[in-house]
Amino acid sequence: MFIYEKKLQYPVCIKKPDPRMAAAIISQYGGPDGELGASLRYLSQRFSMPHKEVKGLLTDVAVEELGHLEIVGAMVYQLTRNLNEEQIKKAGFDAYFTDHTQGVYPQAAAGFPYTAASMAVKGDPVTDLHEDLAAEQKARTTYENLLLLADDPDVIDVLRYLREREIVHYQRFSEALGIVREKLDERNFYAFNPALSLK
Ligand SMILES: [Fe+2]
Fold it and tell me: Contact, 14 vs 79, CB < 8 A?
C-alpha cells in the first residue's frame, strides 16, 4: 500500500520552455536507466529478498524512485508547455510532438519506448544488489550527461538534486550488500539458493 502526498519530493519551477532539453530529460522518465525502470526493478526484487531490512530498503528506494519519476515528468511537461509550431520545429521536437503532442510518454532520448528488458530481477540477493549498484551508477552518469547539456538554473537545480539521490541510493545498496554478505554462510556465498547449498 502506498500513501500519496500531493506535492513533489523536490519542487520543479521551470519558467522557460526548452523542448530540446525536454527531449533529453525524457530518458530519465522511460529510458534504459530512468526512474520508471528503477522503481519497477526494486519493487520487483523485494519479494525474493530474504532479509527484512534489505527488503524494506528496496521498498523505500522504489517508492522514492516513483517520486523521482513524477519530478522528471513535471520537468518534461514544464519544458514543453505553451510551445508554438515554430519552436517545436526549430528545437527538433517535431518527431516527439507527432506521436505524443504535449503528453509525457515513457521513452528514451533516442526515441524507443520503455522496455522492461533494460532491468533485471534475478532472485538472488547478491546478484540483485550488484545489479542495483550498477543501475544507480548508470543513473548518476545519465544525470551528469544531462547537466552537461543544461543551461537553465531552474533545470540544473533539479537535476543536481536527482543526481545526489542516486549517490545516496548507491551508498545504501552498498550497506545492504554488506548485510547480505554477513548473513551468508561462506560455503553458500555464490549460491544463496538453499536448494543449491544442500550438496
Ligand atoms: Fe536511484
Answer: yes
